């Protein structure tokens, strides 16, 4: 991965421009065509983009599975989990605008009963429930985020990613699996280290290129055999 100063400066500009764009769409929102379906987003919500495509394409949900989507944004991954056959999907985020968008999209796709949308900072609002599948499209970069919109792309002191791996085991069933999004301009080495330190294997299962500088990945994460608990 080329994380040279020139490339990172380019990524900085691109991400800042996207954050501005997220904020200035009309109050009644904007509709995007994404992977053959329409999703509506309200101002201050992260838009559907290539970053989640590898995860959606590799996501396998067995009929009757329960799914937790952490950092749901507009609800794209959660909605596709519903299409995949999940019996229950809990989509969580800290951004009120994202929750509004996700709730709207759940209803528009006919999954208002299957998909619950809830405010939660990572797992704070989950309670004691455990899930067969946990999906996460967390901010890729260790960079200070000045507001809730920036937090969709930047992770101040890498706290969100660190806490995710430290805490996720409590909410994952013993034989559960995690689908985790990332990118070539993100902190992949740090994520791999966090996964290993907390008792997980991590394998890339899909990738998609947005352009000549940006590529996105999906990782399948499972407990290492000696850390699995019945």
Kindly list the characteristics that best describe this protein:
230 residues; alpha/beta; Rossmann fold; 7-stranded mixed β-sheet; two-stranded antiparallel ribbon; 6 helices; globular
Query: How many strands, what sense, and barrel or not for the largest sheet?
Result: 7 strands, mixed
Q: What general form does the structure show?
A: globular
Give unreliable regions as ranges: none
CATH architecture designation? 3-Layer(aba) Sandwich
Structural class: alpha/beta
Binned, the helix content reads 25-40%
- Following the backbone from N to C, one meets helices and strands in this order, namely HEEHEHEHEEHEHEE
Cross-sheet strand order for the largest sheet: 5-4-3-6-7-9-8
Give the total of domains. Answer: 1
Please tell me how large the radius of gyration is.
17 Å
End-to-end Cα distance, whole Å, is 38 Å
Task: Estimate the mean pLDDT confidence.
Answer: 95
**What is the CATH level 1 assignment?**
Alpha Beta
How many E-type strands? 9
CATH topology: Rossmann fold
Task: Report the sheet-strand fraction.
Answer: 25-35%
**Secondary structure tally, helices:** 6
What is the assigned CATH homologous superfamily? Vaccinia Virus protein VP39
GO molecular function: peptide chain release factor N(5)-glutamine methyltransferase activity
Keywords: Methyltransferase, S-adenosyl-L-methionine, Transferase
Protein name: Methyltransferase domain-containing protein
Domain Methyltransferase small: 52-191
